Amino acid sequence: MTRFLRLIYVLTGLMLISTAAFVGTVQAETPFPTINEPSDESKKCIHPEDEMRRNHMKYILHERDETMHEGIRDEPESLANCINCHVEPDSSGEIAGIDSSEHFCNACHQYAAVQIDCFQCHADRPQKYIQRDTHSSSLRQQLQQTLAASEVTDKGANQ
């Protein structure tokens, strides 16, 4: 009976060791997301990379609170500063939008299975690359035009 138990213990130990070796191999092959570094090497991130990976959301939330509640808009941890530095055109001149896996924010958020909702309001590309029509009207003018058009539609429906 002791021989049988000893054999069971040895086989169980071998299975555990082989399983641990396999799991270690699988973990070693897990690719981490790549982060686009700024092309201008004189630009350094405001915090070390490992700290930014761990705490960037705290910085962004802090910036959001100060901006929205206190009107402070010149903090280095702003989302716009991150985008302006890390999002650049590729070799063909195209800039990845947030829907692309090539976007700076998207790589890590897909890796961590975290939804990005910042860009429902914020630009996902640096302001200098966003093409704007020089003849576009102000937001107030656009609102007035929309309201005037709806009033004409309402008058036509009432007649």
Would you write up a description of this structure?
The protein is mainly α and 159 residues long. It has a domain at 49-129. It has 5 helices and no strands. The chain is elongated, with a radius of gyration of 27 Å. 6% of the residues are buried. The model has no long low-confidence stretch (mean pLDDT 76).
Features:
159 residues, 0% strand, mainly alpha, elongated
What's the SSE blueprint?
Elements: H1 2-28, H2 49-70, H3 79-86, H4 104-111, H5 139-158
Total helices: the number is 5
Shape: elongated
Distance between the termini: 100 Å
Counting helices, strands and paired strands, the structural category is: mainly alpha
Q: How much helicity do the residues have?
A: 40-55%
Low-confidence stretches: none
Order of helices and strands: HHHHH
Any idea what the radius of gyration is?
A: 27 Å
**How would you sum up the major sheet?**
none
Instruction: Report the count of strand segments.
Output: 0
Mean pLDDT: 76
Strand content: under 5%
